[in-house]
Amino acid sequence: MNLGTTKAERTRNFIIEKTAEIFNRKGYAGTSMADITEATGLTKGSIYGNFQNKEEVALAVFEYNRSLVFNRVQAELEKAGSYFEKLMVYGRIYKDVIASVSNRGGCPILNTAVEADDTNIPLRLSAAKALFSWKKNLVGIIEKGTGAGEFRKGINAEEMAVSIIALIEGGVMFSQVTNDYTNMDHVLATVQLLVKGIRA
């Protein structure tokens, strides 16, 4: 939490951090105002003084939870010395990334996308935005890698990016449902094969 922010911003951050795991575990519908006040020790009036409603809290919490995963991956991407190695990050460390958030309820993108599919348009749009951003990053890596001669010409970058994301999120879903995260090993091995398959 940034101590240089205003009191109102610190209170908002406090509410987000204290309720992030609850929303990720219980979902928007399953998280009550009683859950929020219990986790924060604040009154309903204090919560509503910082957020218009529960949905606004949920949207802020989703972004916070998403950033935990994004920042972990981004740190690994920055260490990679080539575009090939950057793509391999997704096939190498994503099991550890998901394991690190499993005790917080699992992947926030998957959780939010499934719950909000037909019931909460703003949350669904937030999940979609996160996926589009992830896809854009992957497409950029593939296109730059192709330009640098690391990947074969003619690769459909968008198709490859969507396939990688679908494999990873599908693996997360399978692992969460079966409570067996070794299933991610099989999925991530396939991701690595895909990436190696487009090498120049």
Automatic annotation (TrEMBL):
Recorded hits in Pfam families, A to Z, give: TetR_C_13 (PF16925), TetR_N (PF00440)
Q: Which residues bind DNA?
A: 32-51
Q: Keywords of this protein's UniProt record, alphabetized?
A: DNA-binding, Transcription, Transcription regulation
Question: Superkingdom of this entry's organism?
Answer: Bacteria
Residue ranges constituting the HTH tetR-type domain according to the UniProt record? 9-69
- InterPro entries linked: Homeodomain-like_sf, HTH_TetR, Tet_transcr_reg_TetR-rel_C_sf, TetR_C
Protein name in UniProt: HTH tetR-type domain-containing protein
